[in-house]
């Protein structure tokens, strides 16, 4: 089966080629961000600041991969709904759960590890 | 939308491919899977802050390296999907081999990490930290392993000559979605399980 | 994955299915299409109608099993200090009663309706992934087998032929005995034996079945609708299927992971829920109810969908407030994720959390109430016909409302603290489950069975079924409100006299036998319907939706020509509406594409049996059980791999109706 057995229309090819540059750029950015994260944790800044920066960088990588590598911005909005519903239910539920399980009343002092 | 993978009489009302939609739904549902695992870890970590000191054990350099490897494998995966859409079978194969290779490196790092940790005394039965850490990262590792198995079978399938760009592009794309998802789960785990432990 | 389509030459267009020869699949094996062997045909089927019928048959069987378990429970409780069954057997009976009814009776009964009706209601040939559909069915069978396997071991143990060794040595509960929500730490190895392992593995497999079926239905409903069938023209039952499927795929992962954590606790000694190692039993409760509360709506929303189909048909009126009924269903589903902790008010959540969950729970009453009013509004001014499905649907509205009222009482945390774990709770959820869900399902059976088998009901037995079930359930469960408020706790093996509970308990037991007789009569009526000589015809009820437009039972291809829908109640508009709203038809001259049958879903899902049994028996110390588990995993992988490379296949049919007019 040769690679060009089926003619792919020009516009399609052009769109794919444009995606290529987006992919390369994103890969470079992702690599750089990971490097920054690694350095960041050792810097003598207030921990709240570092924490917030780390979370936002992670969020940025997360969204970057979903949007470009997973084609979500090129695709039908339905896909975003399908994934977004699950993601938001998960985030909402487990944020609530972490608050519910954070109380002092959940873990008495005598349990090991406190 | 690209061409249909199989001839069927389904009227695709919203012009969305069935396979792609089911994969996105699966990924939405998988968010709940990993949400449960990660939140269990964080809950116990917060309840028992002194039970275990992971910074002694974690090697941030190694984990950053495997994160980088997984991100790059995701990049190659995106390229191979793109190659498939363009009908470039050779380029597709080259990239998929890269993805598999990087995936195996990641798994290797994880196996090394696990054996090292176990050697240092962190077992699944070590308090709650061992339990939650191993089940969470282990489930992720199993996802990676399934992904590798999937891609290897796809590679063999393409070698057999039965794979055709116009029919199978969607299959590759769906496998790609899965692979990228495994990647974004790791992005989250890397930050909330590894990195924030090191904040002074 | 390449596809082979058999296009039979036009000279052969006799629509004779048996003239088609099975093709070879991509792996060189002959596909089991067009088999004359009835077993091969049903085992390898991908036809949503056959799958639905098998779901229904199995679920009815388990409904009877769960019913018998309930009757034993009630007999044990009829008089104080009774000793009909031992305390442990009593625990096993209520555990299996709950598990069976929820996972093996109601969910698959709903699945039976989903399978049979959804493709018909949306004018599709089949579901989006026919083989995944078959996989769901057989996984359900595997899960049911694993979860009930303990009965065999229990019997062997009773005769002294088997005893547990290994991790659970000395334990003799091979049937799960810790309640259907398996609260930690009761589920840990110190307290329960291999029964818990069967329960874990069984539920895990049933979860796979439910989740994979749900993905399928969501894609089917979103993507496979007939032309013109916009989302807001969908029958309400299909809408509820969509919402329930979304609930399943987002709720089941929580229990899947919780069960996996529990399994690791039991098999590998982790500390997720074991108190000694720092585990928090309360976390299990949270994870269970994160799944468990949406599960309640997973059970009840299909019932609401059935009633929303039956009431308009037998009132000869469109559903009152269609869009608000659909919207209410969606709101119920969404809010269902935000109220799980109301099962845990007495665990001490803290004031803010308790208030928040209390308020959200009360909020769910609003969309539910909206639905009730819309159903009543549908009846208002309609030409009501009291035929069998209608009688049960009306029973649903009333009885479900009663269950709803006691539900609102629970939503108030201080009141709930009094009612927690008492018979009041039992009364509440049985009004919802039997008065609500079961009555709606019986209504659905009376409504759709003629469509499914092409035969019409005969005689007046349905009236007796209705009287027996409604009277029986009220006699059984109404006194339980009082029992609960008098302080009788649930799940107690027996009780002493002198608390004022004796009379109520006796009345409840009598009621349960009346209810049991009602369900038995239903089974008799179903058998009579199968033996009925009276053909149902396409549309015996003068109904409104698309499934009644095709023959009864529907042909394998459902519709000879894909309908084009121009109105909400598609068939009603076609029968009585203006020309512009009548059904159209697609040109199907090129033939109807049918999916090929396959062995692979069966093989893959049968692998779950050695996997589940192996892991559980390993806990009971059976030698080599671990190898069985590995064999199971290999079988699953093997089945799925062959499934992937055999290709979807398919063939073309040319039904007479389509050819003649083309």
Please write out the topology:
The complex is a heterotrimer of chains A (114), B (200) and C (662).
Chain A: H1 10-40, H2 47-69, H3 77-100
Helix pairs in contact in A: 1-2
Chain B: H1 18-47, H2 60-86, H3 89-120, H4 127-159, H5 165-194
Chain C: H1 38-43, H2 48-77, H3 87-121, H4 130-148, H5 150-158, H6 194-223, H7 236-268, H8 281-315, H9 322-335, H10 351-379, H11 388-411, H12 413-419, H13 423-453, H14 461-485, H15 502-531, E1 563-564, H16 570-576, E2 584-585, E3 592-594, H17 600-606, H18 608-619, H19 625-646, E4 651-653, H20 656-661
Antiparallel strand pairs in C: 1-2, 3-4
Textual characterization of the structure:
The complex is a heterotrimer of chains A (114), B (200) and C (662). Chain A has 114 residues and is mainly alpha-helical. Chain A has 2 domains: 66 residues; 31 residues. Chain A is built from 3 helices and no strands. The radius of gyration of chain A is 22 Å and the shape is flat. The N terminus of chain A is likely disordered. Chain B contains 5 helices and no strands. Chain B is elongated and about 55 Å long. Chain C has 662 residues and is mainly alpha-helical. In chain C, strands 1-2 form a two-stranded antiparallel ribbon. A two-stranded antiparallel sheet of chain C has the order 3-4. The longest helix of chain C has 35 residues. The radius of gyration of chain C is 25 Å and the shape is globular. The N terminus of chain C is likely disordered.
Strand count, sense and barrel status of the largest sheet of chain A are: none
Helix content of chain B: over 70%
Which of globular, elongated, flat, extended, rod-shaped describes the shape of chain A? flat
CATH third-tier fold name of chain B: Four Helix Bundle (Hemerythrin (Met), subunit A)
The low-confidence runs of chain B, each spanning 5 or more residues with pLDDT under 50, are: 1-11
Mind telling me the C-alpha Rg of chain B? 19 Å
Helical run tally of chain B: 5
Instruction: Please count the beta strands of chain B (DSSP E, at least 2 residues each).
Output: 0
- How many domains of chain A? The number is 2
* Class based on secondary structure composition and strand pairing of chain A: mainly alpha
User: CATH class of chain B, please?
Assistant: Mainly Alpha
Counting helices, strands and paired strands, the structural category of chain B is: mainly alpha
**Largest two-chain interface:** A-B, 65 and 72 residues
Major β-sheet profile of chain B: none
Q: Averaged pLDDT of chain A, please?
A: 84
């Amino acid at each position: 089966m040769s690679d060009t057995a089926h003619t792919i229309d020009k516009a399609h090819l052009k769109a794919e080629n444009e995606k290529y540059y987006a992919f390369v750029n994103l890969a470079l950015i992702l690599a750089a961000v990971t490097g920054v994260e690694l350095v960041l944790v050792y810097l003598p800044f207030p921990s709240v600041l570092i924490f917030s920066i780390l979370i936002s960088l992670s969020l940025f990588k997360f969204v970057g991969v979903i949007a470009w590598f997973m084609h979500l911005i090129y695709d039908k909005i339905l896909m975003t709904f399908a994934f977004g519903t699950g993601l938001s239910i998960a985030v909402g539920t487990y944020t609530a759960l972490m608050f519910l399980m954070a109380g002092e009343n959940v873990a008495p002092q005598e349990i090991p590890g406190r | 939308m690209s061409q249909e993978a199989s001839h069927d009489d389904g009227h695709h009302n919203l012009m969305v491919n069935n396979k792609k939609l089911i994969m996105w739904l699966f990924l939405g549902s998988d968010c709940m899977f990993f949400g449960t695992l990660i939140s269990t870890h964080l809950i116990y970590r917060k309840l028992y802050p002194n039970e275990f000191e992971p910074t002694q054990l974690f090697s941030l350099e190694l984990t950053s390296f495997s994160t980088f490897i997984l991100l790059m494998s995701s990049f190659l995966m995106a390229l191979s999907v793109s190659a498939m859409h363009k009908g470039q079978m050779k380029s597709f194969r080259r990239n998929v081999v890269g993805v598999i290779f990087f995936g195996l490196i990641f798994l290797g790092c994880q196996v090394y990490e696990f054996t090292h940790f176990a050697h240092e005394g962190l077992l699944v039965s070590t308090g709650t930290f061992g339990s939650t850490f191993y089940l969470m990262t282990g489930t992720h590792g199993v996802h990676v392993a399934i992904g590798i198995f999937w891609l290897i079978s796809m590679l063999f399938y393409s070698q057999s000559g039965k794979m055709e760009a116009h029919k199978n592009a969607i299959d590759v794309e769906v496998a790609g979605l899965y692979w990228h998802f495994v990647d974004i789960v790791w992005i989250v785990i890397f930050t909330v399980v590894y990195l924030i432990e090191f904040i002074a | 994955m390449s596809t082979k389509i058999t296009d039979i030459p036009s000279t052969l267009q006799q629509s004779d299915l048996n003239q088609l020869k099975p093709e070879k699949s991509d792996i060189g094996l002959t596909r089991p299409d067009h088999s004359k062997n009835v077993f091969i045909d049903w085992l390898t089927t991908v036809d949503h109608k056959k799958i639905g019928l098998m779901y229904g048959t199995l679920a009815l069987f388990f409904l009877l099993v769960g019913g018998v378990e309930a009757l034993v429970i009630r007999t044990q409780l009829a008089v104080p200090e009774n000793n009909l069954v031992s305390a442990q057997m009593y625990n096993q009976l209520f555990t299996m009663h709950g598990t069976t009814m929820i996972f093996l009776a109601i969910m698959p009964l709903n699945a039976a309706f989903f399978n049979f009706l959804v493709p018909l209601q949306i004018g599709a040939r089949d579901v989006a992934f026919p083989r995944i559909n078959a996989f769901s069915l057989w996984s359900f069978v595997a899960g049911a087998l694993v979860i009930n396997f303990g009965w065999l071991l229990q019997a062997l143990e009773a005769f002294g032929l088997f005893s547990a060794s290994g991790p659970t040595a000395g334990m003799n509960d091979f049937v799960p005995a810790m309640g259907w929500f398996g609260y930690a730490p009761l589920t840990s190895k110190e307290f329960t034996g291999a029964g818990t392992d069967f329960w874990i593995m069984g539920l895990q497999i049933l979860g796979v079945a439910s989740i994979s079926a749900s993905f399928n239905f969501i894609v089917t409903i979103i993507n496979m609708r007939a032309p013109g069938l916009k989302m807001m023209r969908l029958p309400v039952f299909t809408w509820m299927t969509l919402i329930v499927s979304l609930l399943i795929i987002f709720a089941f992962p929580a229990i899947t992971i919780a069960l996996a954590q529990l399994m690791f606790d039991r098999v590998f000694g982790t500390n997720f829920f074991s108190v000694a190692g720092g585990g928090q039993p309360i976390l299990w409760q949270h994870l269970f109810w994160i799944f468990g509360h949406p599960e309640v709506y997973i059970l009840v929303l299909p019932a609401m969908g059935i009633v929303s189909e039956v009431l308009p048909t037998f009132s000869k009126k469109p559903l009152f407030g269609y869009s608000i009924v659909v919207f209410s269903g969606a709101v119920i589903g969404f809010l269902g994720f935000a109220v799980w902790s109301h099962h845990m008010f007495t665990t001490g959540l803290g004031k803010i959390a308790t208030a928040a969950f209390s308020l959200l729970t009360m909020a769910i009453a609003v969309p539910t109430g909206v639905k009730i009013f819309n159903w009543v509004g549908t009846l208002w001014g309609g030409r009501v016909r009291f035929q069998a499905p209608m009688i049960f649907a009306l029973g649903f509205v009333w009885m479900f409302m009663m269950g709803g009222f006691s539900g609102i009482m629970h939503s108030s945390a201080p009141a709930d603290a009094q009612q927690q774990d008492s018979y009041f709770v039992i009364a509440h959820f049985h009004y919802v489950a039997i008065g609500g869900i079961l009555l709606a399902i019986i209504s659905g059976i009376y409504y759709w069975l003629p469509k499914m088998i092409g035969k019409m009901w005969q005689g007046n037995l349905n009236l007796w079924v209705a009287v027996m079930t409604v009277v029986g359930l009220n006699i059984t469960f109404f006194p339980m409100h009082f029992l609960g408020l008098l302080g009788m706790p649930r799940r107690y093996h027996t009780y002493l006299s002198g608390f004022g509970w004796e009379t109520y308990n006796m009345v409840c037991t009598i009621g349960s036998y009346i209810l049991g007789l009602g369900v038995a009569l239903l089974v008799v009526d179903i058998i009579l319907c199968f033996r009925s000589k009276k053909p149902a015809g396409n549309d015996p009820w003068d109904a409104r939706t698309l499934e009644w437009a095709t023959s009864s039972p529907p042909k394998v291809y459902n519709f000879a020509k894909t309908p084009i829908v121009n109105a909400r109640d598609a068939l009603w508009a076609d029968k009585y509406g203006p020309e512009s709203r009548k059904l159209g038809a697609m040109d199907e001259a090129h033939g109807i594409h049918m999916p090929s049958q396959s062995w692979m879903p069966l093989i893959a899902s049968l692998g779950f049996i050695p996997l589940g049994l192996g892991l559980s028996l390993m806990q009971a110390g059976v030698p080599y059980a671990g190898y069985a588990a590995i064999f199971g995993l290999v079988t699953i992988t093997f089945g799925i791999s062959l499934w992937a490379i055999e290709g979807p296949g398919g063939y073309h049919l040319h039904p007479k109706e389509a050819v003649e007019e083309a």
